[in-house]
């Protein structure tokens, strides 16, 4: 909720919190330009949260004002929670200010997708709030889903497969090695040593003339 405009908040009291700075980085060139025209800039937006004033829109202007040692005369003051402030910040710069880079857009959409509630919004609703296209949001959501699945698969692969030889945990590589050794011992087509082959085929020794490979263990 916007309560009022204020001109009596000194620039030194404005908090620049990285949680609400949803650009990949601030532009030194933009700050330098704003220094020469700071009094003509449009109002900045801040949130009063428990008496602390957090900037949510106008970071470049605040940095310019602090560099020039002047106070901003146009400040819109909102009241709410930190989540209210973040949601507001996600919508900032969608129609004004320094043009956003693709990295800026990814950062703001990422902030929405990181939130347990906002990520349930449709891609169209997130795109509208963040000032990007719906395919942009859909692509980011798909990328994050694949990353999460890959991480889950990697974690599962590292889970122990039972006790190891030294009493600790046995990882997949060791388990596969043991499995291969076991297969060698029980493989039905394992090579039969000549001495055993003689006893099972020699009419004098056994009288059967049949190679009983399935019952022989090397």
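Sequence proposed for the structure above (218 residues):
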């Amino acid at each position: 909720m916007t309560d009022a405009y204020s001109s009596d908040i000194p620039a030194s009291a404005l908090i620049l919190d990285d949680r609400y700075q949803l650009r990949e980085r601030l532009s030194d060139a933009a700050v330098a330009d704003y220094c020469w025209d700071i009094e003509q800039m449009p109002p900045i937006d801040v949130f009063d949260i428990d008496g602390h004033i957090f900037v949510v829109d106008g970071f470049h202007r605040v940095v310019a004002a602090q560099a020039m040692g002047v106070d901003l005369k146009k400040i819109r003051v909102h009241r709410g929670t930190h989540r209210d402030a973040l949601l507001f910040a996600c919508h900032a710069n969608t129609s004004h200010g320094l043009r956003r880079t693709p990295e800026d857009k990814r950062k703001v959409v990422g902030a929405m997708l990181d939130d347990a509630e906002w990520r349930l919004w449709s891609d169209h609703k997130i795109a509208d709030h963040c000032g990007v296209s719906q395919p942009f949001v859909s692509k980011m959501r798909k990328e994050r889903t694949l990353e999460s699945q890959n991480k889950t698969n990697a974690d599962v692969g590292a889970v122990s497969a039972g006790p190891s030889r030294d009493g600790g945990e046995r990882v997949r590589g060791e388990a596969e090695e043991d499995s291969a050794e076991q297969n060698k011992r029980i493989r039905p087509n394992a090579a039969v040593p000549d001495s055993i082959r003689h006893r099972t085929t020699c009419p004098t020794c056994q009288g059967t003339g049949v190679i009983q490979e399935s019952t022989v263990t090397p």
